[in-house]
Amino acid sequence: MKTVYCRPKCMKEAHFHYCPGCGHGVITRLIAEVVDEMELRDKTICVAPAGCGMLLYNYFDIDTIESAHGRGAAVATGIKRVRPENLVFSYQGDGDLAAIGTAEGFHAANRGELISVIFVNNGVYGMTGGQMAPTTMLEQVTTTSPAGRDSVLQGHPVKICEVYATLDGTSYLERVAVNKPAAIIKTKKAIAKAFRHQQQKTGFSLVEILSPCPTNWKMSPLDSCRWVDDVMTKVFPLGLIKETKKC
């Protein structure tokens, strides 16, 4: 039989802890594939977050450091400044980057820090019970917005890519998804491009990934993938948001 797929070399032989249908596993695999294909395994440092992605060190066979909640961009900044020869990226969720880590991420982007952020947007706090996050959409039901998010009471969903696009220090911002094969292919290309921007020292790079969360959305995996297209992309349009130089 012909081999059509092999586990990336920089992924350990371990079982994911993610819920069935969750997009984190796909994203983790894509990052590993990109690191392997760019031959960066010995040079890459990952900063893992609090939240669903906190156990990345169990899956990546690369140097992986745990950060406090929201501090991923700050930790990545420190590592990159000390070890500029390394590829350094933080992996952060919407509650991590867009809430408690607002200042760290915003100012790292504004300074043009030569790091990359993989930003996973599933519209809720995934690990702690499905509470409303900064990216929760209007009328979306969560455990802390049981009647749906109300703009008067709770404000509007935060669009990180559009906010960061106003900053002079950002060089590459793209929003992608992992809810279907064609989208996954685009996501892999976006991750690779973000890493190339870092290598070429163009500035701060970020890839926002819309990811299904069946458990907290109270949907089947299939319905959650459809919901990304039918609902999320209407609020968070996919595509290239900013690129200052082709890489």
State the CATH class.
Alpha Beta
Structural class: alpha/beta
CATH topology heading: Rossmann fold
Strand order of the largest sheet: 2-1-3-4-8-7-9
**Major sheet description:** 7 strands, mixed
Radius of gyration over C-alpha positions, nearest whole angstrom = 17 Å
**Domain count:** 1
- How many helix segments? 9
Q: How many DSSP-defined strands?
A: 9
Mean pLDDT: 95
Helix coverage percent of residues? 25-40%
CATH superfamily: Thiamin diphosphate (ThDP)-binding fold, Pyr/PP domains
Beta-strand content:
15-25%
> What's the architecture, going by CATH?
3-Layer(aba) Sandwich
Uncertain stretches: none
Ends: how far apart? 37 Å
- Morphology: globular
Question: What is the strand and helix layout of this fold?
Answer:
Blueprint lengths: L23 H14 L6 E5 L14 E4 L5 H11 L4 E7 H7 L1 H10 L4 E6 L2 E2 L5 E2 L18 H4 L5 H5 L5 E8 L3 H19 L4 E7 L3 H4 L3 H15 L3 E5 L4
Parallel strand pairs: 1-2, 1-3, 3-4, 4-8, 7-8
Antiparallel strand pairs: 5-6, 7-9
Helix pairs in contact: 1-7, 3-4
Question: How would you characterize the overall build of this protein?
Answer:
With 247 residues, the protein is an alpha/beta fold. It has one domain: Thiamin diphosphate (ThDP)-binding fold, Pyr/PP domains (Rossmann fold, 3-Layer(aba) Sandwich). 36% of the residues lie in helices and 19% in strands. It contains nine helices and nine strands. The protein has helices spanning 24-37, 72-82, 94-100, 102-111, 151-154, 160-164, 181-199, 214-217, 221-235; strands at 44-48, 63-66, 87-93, 116-121, 124-125, 131-132, 170-177, 204-210, 239-243. The strands form two sheets. A seven-stranded mixed β-sheet has the order 2-1-3-4-8-7-9, sandwiched between helices. Helix 7 (181-199) links the parallel strand 7 (170-177) and strand 8 (204-210). The radius of gyration is 17 Å and the shape is globular. The chain starts with 23 loop residues before the first helix and ends with a strand.
